[in-house]
Design goal:
Order of helices and strands: HHHHHHHHHHHHHHHHHHHH
Distance between the termini: 49 Å
Helix content: over 70%
Number of strands: 0
Number of helices: 20
Largest sheet: none
Strand content: under 5%
Shape: globular
């Protein structure tokens, strides 16, 4: 098998593993809460404990990838993900489960940026758009298989099997990677910014804790406002330190590239919308509409199918025509889709009230995802692909983290019809902002002249 093909397969499978848990967990949340207790707060923590460590450590993982080699970091991440999946599967109570999810996120942080950096380092610039489109399409299959697989496992066996199943693709990836050999550490590697990593975890952790627990304790409780203040201060110190650190975990110089800065700002709003909307639909269908986990998984499949089959095509179009138009009209189309779901009433009619909007939303996201990734990574020097990919992934995960932590503020303590309407409006608003940011901020890269255009004219 050609090395490029093997690298692409490894990158897809590795990212698939990390994304699978994000796809499975939503349909498993009601069953997890029913067995372990904890109400909406546990459901939020089941998602956010994973996203917290994933989002805050993914920048550190990008630096580790650039310094010690992509393949080495991927292998460490795979072993860690296997161990923490077993911990989640065997959790006797909510506290152990949340701790397991946090550790699992830390392992997952090692996987995604290294896999994308492996693609950037292996494929020439002209082929990167198509390769990233394929990566996006097939890793999105995790969101296709996840709800179906998770729903079936929850309904037929137990939510615990959702985590045991991770061991299968992990074993495949470790065996398949053997032919790629081992990469040597970078002799010019920079020092790792451990202080920045710690400040990032505290900053995100304190803020997210306050957003989730304010529903139980109220904003005036020291249980809420003390972590909130600590989190905000830690985040401010984090930014201050990253400007002065000799080898920062988050090189702010990356944001001097217009497409990198604008693309990550758009990512913040687009992925906040995606996380909030997906979470709200999955919980609403099960806890209000009475869908089983399997049916809820089936009901949310259309967007994933469209991303899988159209993602690579839109990625190719983005390489040809530039990403700006797709990054603008994609989110706007997805926003229209979520607004269409406002027709849902107490008598939930999936086929007429939800499905049309879900399909339109899926088309919009298919237009957006691959061009967004390609535009951001295309603005980064290939030698810094690891940290560039890590920054973008961190922004996406942090966006989802904060969006889900804020769901109690948006919808209250229960996702009834009124709460779902508020979630849909908030989701559409985030998407519109993401589209506007893309139109204003993104610039299409200059096209390389064709050979006939570059040749000098003859007399």
């Amino acid at each position: 098998m050609e090395r490029r093909t093997r690298v692409l397969v490894v990158a897809i499978v590795v990212s698939f593993i990390a994304f699978l848990d994000g796809a499975v967990i939503n349909v498993a949340l009601p069953s997890i809460e029913a067995e372990l207790g904890g109400g909406l707060a546990l459901q939020q923590w089941a998602v956010d404990a994973y996203l917290l460590t994933l989002g805050s450590l993914i920048l550190l993982a990008g630096s580790l990838s650039d310094s010690f080699g992509r393949l080495r970091i991927i292998r460490i991440g795979l072993y860690g993900f296997a161990a923490t999946s077993v911990l989640c599967a065997m959790a006797p109570d909510g506290l152990v489960f949340v701790i397991g999810r946090a550790l699992q996120g830390a392992a997952g942080a090692l996987l995604v940026p290294s896999s994308l950096a492996l693609i950037i380092a292996t494929f020439p610039a002209a082929a990167q758009g198509k390769a990233i489109g394929r990566w996006t399409a097939w890793t999105t299959a995790a969101f296709l298989i996840g709800p179906l697989l998770g729903g079936a496992l929850v309904d037929l066996v137990s939510w615990r099997l959702v985590f045991w199943i991770n061991l299968v693709p992990i074993a495949f990836a470790l065996v398949f990677m053997r032919a790629l050999g081992r990469d040597e550490p970078n002799p010019a590697r920079e020092r790792i910014d451990w202080l920045g990593a710690g400040l990032g975890v505290v900053g995100l952790g304190g803020t997210v804790f306050a957003l989730i627990e304010q529903g139980r304790f109220g904003w005036s409780s020291p249980v809420v406002f003390v972590p909130l203040v600590v989190g905000i201060v830690a985040f401010a110190v984090f930014l201050w330190w990253e400007r002065r650190a000799p080898q920062p975990m988050l090189p702010l110089s990356l944001f001097r590239a217009r497409n990198f800065a604008a693309g990550n700002l758009a990512t913040l709003f687009i992925y906040a919308a995606l996380s909030l909307g997906t979470f709200a639909i999955a919980i609403f269908l099960q806890e209000f509409a009475g869908f089983s986990a399997t049916l809820a998984g089936l009901a949310t499949l259309p967007p994933t199918i469209m991303i899988v089959f159209l993602g690579s095509w839109f990625g190719g179009l983005s390489s040809r025509f530039g990403p700006r138009i797709f990054m603008t009209f994609g989110p706007l189309t997805a926003a229209i889709g979520y607004l269409l779901t406002l027709t849902v009433t107490d008598d939930v009619a999936y086929w007429t009230q939800l499905l049309p909007g879900i399909v339109v939303m899926g088309l919009g996201m298919a237009m957006t995802v691959a061009p967004l990734t390609s535009a951001i990574l295309g603005a980064v020097d290939p030698a810094r692909a690891g940290i560039g990919s890590a920054v973008n992934n961190a922004v996406a995960r942090i966006a989802g983290l904060v969006a889900i932590a804020s769901i109690g503020v948006i919808v209250g303590t229960r996702l009834d019809v009124e709460g779902f309407h508020r979630a849909a409006i908030a989701t559409a608003a985030f998407l519109v902002i993401g589209g506007v940011v893309s139109w204003i901020g993104i610039r299409n890269p200059a096209r390389a002249p064709m050979p006939s255009e570059a040749a000098p004219a003859r007399d």
